[in-house]
Amino acid sequence: MSESTLSDNLHRLMHRYRSRLREEVARRDLGLPITHIRALKGICRNPHSTAQSIAQRMQRDKAQITRVLKELIAEQLIEKRPNPDDGRSQLLLPTERGRAVLADLMAAEQETAKAMTRSLSANELEQFADLTARMVSNLTSESEGGR
User: Fold this and answer.
1) Which residue has the higher pLDDT, 41 or 22?
2) How far is CA 140 from CA 97, 113, 136, 143, in A?
3) What pLDDT was estimated at residue 1?
4) How many beta carbons lie within 10 A of that of residue 73, not counting itself?
5) What are the pLDDT digits (tens) for 109-128?
6) What is the residue range of the signal peptide feature (predicted)?
7) Whose CA, among 62, 77, 86, 103, lies 20 to 30 Å from 29?
């Protein structure tokens, strides 16, 4: 397979996946952009989340993440609490409403994944997971100077 075909296929897959996920989110009337969804997921999964850790995890500018976090706070999906380990930062925690929204988001992701993989066997899905994990690892080690 040529590099351009691989690139084109990956681009189309990500575009269709994100489009379908947005459709599922809209169908469930959650009204959250993908960046907000990713931030909320990160906060729900890590009880020691800070604005800095979310920015690093998402590989986004801290100012952009700060705007997203302010919107999540305004929507009462997350809250800030003092960080007992570092007085200069605050921990980000999901609210009860935030956890409920995350449950809906996870259902939307599962529905999207189900549609995307409906004609694939368990073996094909396992191979895909292995191959994509290796590709991510290749790019990660390369960007960290391990060329």
Assistant:
1) 41
2) 35, 24, 6, 5
3) 58
4) 15
5) 999 999 999 999 999 999 99
6) none
7) 62
* Contact assessment for residue 72 and residue 78, using Cβ atoms and an 8 Å cutoff: yes
Spell out a b/e string for 104-120, using b for 16 or more CB atoms within 10 Å of the CB, else e.
ebeebbebbeeeeeeee
- To the nearest 10°, report the CA torsion of 60, 18, 5, 128: 90
Full-model pTM? 0.75
Class of residue 79 by CB neighbours under 10 A (exposed 0-12, middle 13-18, buried 19+): middle
Quote the tokens at residue 64.
Answer: 């952009």
**Which residue, 82, 56, 81, 54, is CA-closest to 68?**
54
Q: Return d(Cα 127, Cα 51) in angstroms, integer.
A: 35
89 burial via Cβ count (<10 Å: 0-12, 13-18, 19+):
middle
DSSP strands (E only) in 16-142: 78-82, 90-94
